Amino acid sequence: MPDTASRLGALLAATAATAPSHAADGRLYFLCDAGGSAQVWELPADGAPARPRSDHRDAVAFVAGSPTDGGAIFGRDQAGDERVQLHHLPPEGPARALTADPRVIHGWGAIAPDGRSLACTANSRDPAHTDPCVIDIASGTPRRVLEVEGPHELPAWHPDGRSLVLARAPKTFESDLIGVEIATGATTRLTPHEGEWRHMNPRWRRDGSGFWLLTDRGRDFLGLAFQVPGGTPAFLHAPEADVEQLEPSPDQSRLAVVVNEEGYSRLRILDAASGAVLEQPSYPAGVITRISWHPDGASLAFDLACPTRPSTLWRHRLRQPEAELIFAPAEAPAALRDWQLVRFPTFDGRELPAFLALPEGTAPAGGWPLLVWVHGGPESQARPNWRPDLQLVLSLGIAVLVPNVRGSTGYGRAYAALDDRELRLDSVRDLAAAHAWAAAQERFDARRIAVMGQSYGGWMVLAAVTEYPELWAAGVDYYGIARWKTFFERTGPWRIGHRAAEYGDPVRDAELLERLSPLHKADRIQCPMLVAQGMTDPRVPPQESEQIVEALRRRQVPVDYVTFPDEGHGFLKRDNRRRIYLAVADFLARHLLDNRAAS
C-alpha cells in the first residue's frame, strides 16, 4: 500500500502540542509528540523558540508548572502500564525522579502553594486503594497522610498549605470533596453528601473562605458554583451544557471556564463574583483539554484540536476579540476532511447526535462504504478531535460516522443513564439504528458498513456483531471486553469498585454480566474481524482479546490479530500507531472496497 503508507506518513508527521501549564516565571510547559511520543516541551518566557525538556520512548502523562519558580513536575509510566512515576524538572537541566517504584500508581494532585511539596495519591499500601500522600520535592521523601478505601484524587491544596482536598468518586456521577489536615489526617466534609451529585475541580479563594467548583447538584448538567466549606453550592454560571474546566485568574477577579456545546469547546471569561460573561473570544471550532493563566493575569493559554488539525497552542489576551495561535509543531496535511454534526433517529423516537465525515468528491455509484466508529467509556463522548486514523480511512474513499449513543456524557445525567445495567444493550440498538439511518441514504452502500471501537467501544463492537450479525460487513475491536467475568478477574484491582458501579457487581450481578458477554454469542459472528491489543494493558487485559480471537479461529471466521508488547490501554508511540493504522486501512480496504487495493 505505497500511497496509503505515504498518506499516513504525512498524517503522523502532523504532531500535536497539548496540556499547557504556566510556571511562575511565565514560561509555558506543554506536551508535544514531535519525537514519536508525548514529551515535556517548554516555550520560554523571553520569547525564545520552543525546546524539548524530556526524552523518553514512553509517553509523558502530564506536566504541571511550579507556582513558585520556573520548574515543573511531570509523570510517566513504562510501556503503557499506567504505573506513573513522578519527576521534578528544574528550570534548567535534566529531570530527577521523585518516585521509582514500578509497582505503584501515582495519581497526580497539585503542587503546594509554597512550591516545596506536591500532593499525589499512591496505591503502595494496597493495589485497590489510592491513599493521599505528600512528597517533599527537594528530598523526594513521601508521607502518607491518610489511609482510605478505594480510588481517590487530590485536586487542590488549601491556600494555607496545611490541608488538602480529597475527591471521592464511588460512581461516575457521584463525587464528594473532603478536607484532610496534613499534620493529623483529620477530615472535614466540604460538600453536602445528600443525593448522588458531582462536586469537582475545587479552586479556593486565597482567604480560604470558600471555593469555586463544578457541580451538577440538582441539575442535569455541570455548572459553575461557589461554596463555603460545608455549605450548599450557589450557581454562578449554569448553561444547559456541561461546564468542563475552571481556572481563576491570578488576582481571582475573573474565572476562565470551558463549556461543552454539542462536543465543541467554548472558552468564556466570567466575573468571579457574579458569574457574568465578560468575554468569549473567537477561535477555530474544536476541542480544548486544558487552560492555564499567565502569572501576570493578562492572558491565558489553551490547547485546541479539531478534525483537520492536531492540537496547537493558543493565547487569549484579555479584552481582545480573537485568540492567537502561539505554537504549532507542524503543519497539517492538505485535503483533510472536516466533521459535521448530524442526528439520526433510534428505536424509542429519540434523535441521537453524531459526527459525519465524507470522502472528497461525490459518492460513487452504489454509495460510499461507511465506518461507524464507537467511543469508549461508556462515560465518554466522541468529540470533533484530530484523528489521523479516521482521516486515513476517509482518504480510502470510506465515509465515517461517529455517534454519541445513549450512555455518552456531554448531554446530561439523564442521557448518560439510559444504558445503565439492564438497559446496556439499548446502546447497541442505537448502533443498529445508525446503520438503518445510513442504509436508507443513496450516498452510502448498505452492504458495506463496518463498525469499530476501542475499550468499552470494543465491547460495543463485539456486542454489535453478535446482537445484529446480519448488519455488519466488518468489525474492528481494539482491546474490547469479551466476557465480563474474566474482565473483572484480571483488570487492575484499583478499578473494580468503580467499574462495578457502572457495569454491575461481578458477584451479585453475575447472571446479567454473563448475558452481556459477547464471548457467549461468538458463534453468531458472520463478518471478518480485526482485533488489536496492547500486551501491558492494565485495564482490559490481553485475555479478553485472546478469548474472542480463539473463538473466531475455532469457527474459521476471518480474523486479523495485531498485538503490541510495549503498549497498554491505547497505542501511543508513533511507530506503533503507524503499524496499527496501516493494518486497519488494509483490513477495511479488503472488506469494504470490493477487494480493491487500498492504494
TrEMBL record:
Keywords: Hydrolase, Protease, Serine protease. GO terms for molecular function: serine-type endopeptidase activity. It comes from the Bacteria. Signal peptide: none annotated. Pfam families: PD40, Peptidase_S9. Residues 389-592 form the Peptidase S9 prolyl oligopeptidase catalytic domain. The keyword Cell membrane does not apply. One of its GO terms (biological process) is proteolysis. PANTHER family: DIPEPTIDYL PEPTIDASE FAMILY MEMBER 6, SERINE PEPTIDASE S9 FAMILY MEMBER. This is Alpha/beta fold hydrolase.
